[in-house]
Specification:
CATH topology of the domain at 42-86 and 114-226: Umud Fragment, subunit A
Structural class: alpha+beta
Oligomer: single chain
Number of strands: 11
CATH architecture of the domain at 42-86 and 114-226: Ribbon
Radius of gyration: 23 Å
Strand order of the largest sheet: 1-2-11-3-4-9-10
Distance between the termini: 39 Å
Length: about 230
């Protein structure tokens, strides 16, 4: 909106009203955004390739927020996991961080906690029995009679990247892609990277408690060519 160089008092008032309306609209939109992202949704940009081939670096997602309500997770869901220390920022710093993230399209993070957030795939739920052979997980659902692959147990279709290992690889080595069967305790979830060469998941951390899971991916809104439910 270009300000005229010469105008009457009436035109000046009209111009100021329009400017104030625009500023008020931006302020209202920001407040609504903060409320939604604090209690209902969050927006994140993928920073690693650990979820290849289905999720790429710089994919933009909308996640549910578990601040007020934690829905039941499903096998196969992509979740946002916080493996960092407890967030002890005061309200002002959280607001300032949200403000900066809003105006930089999620590219700047004042809290410096972005490195503690990970996108992972839910493989098994509390009470399930889990094992792994050749980087593919098998699941015996809680109370179920038989083992099935992670793909058969999943509510969603996805693909994984299986790393190539030497022919004489010692399968007893850590992160070899083989896990002996074990049962998840109550409030434990088994999470894996889709790129199985990336072991920054439950193979390293162990099963994740629900308090570490901050949301489930609802929608990928960028890039447009891959827009949709992940």
């Amino acid at each position: 909106m270009k300000k005229p160089s010469l105008y009457s008092y009436k035109e000046e008032k009209k111009y100021k009203r329009r400017l104030n309306s625009i500023l008020a609209g931006v302020a209202v939109f920001f407040i609504v955004y903060i409320c939604f992202t604090s209690f209902l949704f969050s927006m994140r940009v993928t920073l690693s390739d650990s979820m290849q081939p289905g999720v790429h670096v710089k994919d933009h997602f909308i996640f549910s927020s578990y601040e007020l309500y934690t829905p039941e997770l499903q096998r196969g869901s992509i979740v946002l996991v916080d493996m960092g220390d407890e967030d002890k920022r005061d309200i002002f710093m959280r607001f300032l961080d949200d403000f900066v993230r809003f105006w930089t399209l999620q590219r700047v993070d004042l809290s410096k906690r972005e490195d503690s957030f990970y996108l992972k795939r839910v493989i098994a739920l509390p009470g399930d029995e889990v094992s792994m052979t050749n980087f593919v997980a098998r699941v015996k659902k809680k109370g179920g009679p038989y083992w099935i692959t992670e793909f058969e147990s999943s509510e969603r279709h996805y693909e994984v990247a299986i790393p190539q290992v030497p022919a004489l690889w010692d399968m007893s080595l850590p992160f070899s892609g083989t896990i002996d069967p074990f049962v998840l305790k109550e409030d434990e979830y088994f999470l894996l990277s889709d790129d199985r060469s990336d072991t920054n998941d439950s193979r390293t951390w162990g099963p994740a408690p629900s308090k570490r899971i901050k949301g489930a991916a609802l929608f990928r809104y960028w890039p447009i060519t891959r827009m949709g439910k992940p």
